[in-house]
Amino acid sequence: MNGETLYSIGDLARRTGLTVKTIRFYADTGIVPATDRTRAGYRRYGAEALARLALVRTLRGLGIDLATIRTVVDREVSLTDVAATHAEALDVQIRVLRQRRAVLTAVVRRGSTPEEMDLMHTLARLSEAERARLIDDFLDAVFDGLREHPVVAGVTRSLTPELPDDPEPEQIEAWVELAELTQDRDFRATLHGMAEDLVAGRAPDDATGPPRSLVEAVRARVTPALGAGVAPDAAEADSIVASLVDHCARILGRSAAHGTSDLHRCLADRLARMNDPRRDRYLSLLAVVNGWPAPSSLAPELAWSVEALRTRMP
Length: 314
Hints:
The protein is an all-alpha fold and about 325 residues long. About 65% of the residues lie in helices and about 5% in strands. It has 15 helices and 4 strands. The chain has helices spanning about 10-15, 20-30, 45-60, 65-75, 80-110, 115-125, 130-140, 150-160, 170-180, 185-200, 215-225, 240-250, 260-275, 275-290, 300-310, and strands at about 35, 45, 205, 210. Helix 5 (about 80-110) packs across helix 9, helix 9 (about 170-180) runs antiparallel to helix 14 (about 275-290) and helix 13 runs antiparallel to helix 15 (about 300-310). The longest helix is centred in the first third of the chain and has 32 residues, at about 80-110. It starts with 8 loop residues before the first helix and ends with a helix. Residues about 205-210 have low confidence and may be disordered.
């Protein structure tokens, strides 16, 4: 035909690496029609058939179905549109595979039961709206009756996980563990107690300074003592304990000169509640999910403070 080189199915097979059977199937389904036939009825194919076969092979390698390939080679739809559609589909598949990998990794790491694995899988597959409802329910329990206090809005934002649209596997795994933790009723109750302490614990640090929470007071006074190697029962710790007790007295609207023993016990109990390892774990997981720097733990300061207070109780 006009001097064009024509090829047999065998020639196409050798040039493309496809089998004769596959090429014949593509020909029979109209994806790669014959350019001409010999007098004996054998099909012959031109350069366009070679180009079509190369395109078909590439698209099949990308997982695109034959019906869609047919519309592309017949130019009923553009290759760009098909590529965009399948890229979006692959993005979904990749996210699903990452979720599955995160769940399976967590199962191996934690030695989970089948029931725990089912829960993790469910939590990993939650939609953005479902995740938001789960966290809202958790934070509503933590700050029940406290929402009107001005400090709560900022604290709520600082405790809210926001899984990105395309999370890393470690973020998915952290989200699953964090979501499980939010369902722990005892943990909710513990955080609610901490929130009540926070709301009640905004005492002035001095006559002119800004309000300082109990957590901030402990960090400011105890962290340097730890760094200096001061033991909780050492004489050097007396002034630190007295300062913390005085802070607690002002929080409670009481005089540190009266009922010191009760103040020691009240403050020690409050700090012991704050030193819940689940709190540190939640904050660590939250940092991973949100892509924040890893938080520093206040556990050493809290443990030091509790011991220092209790060694001075009558």
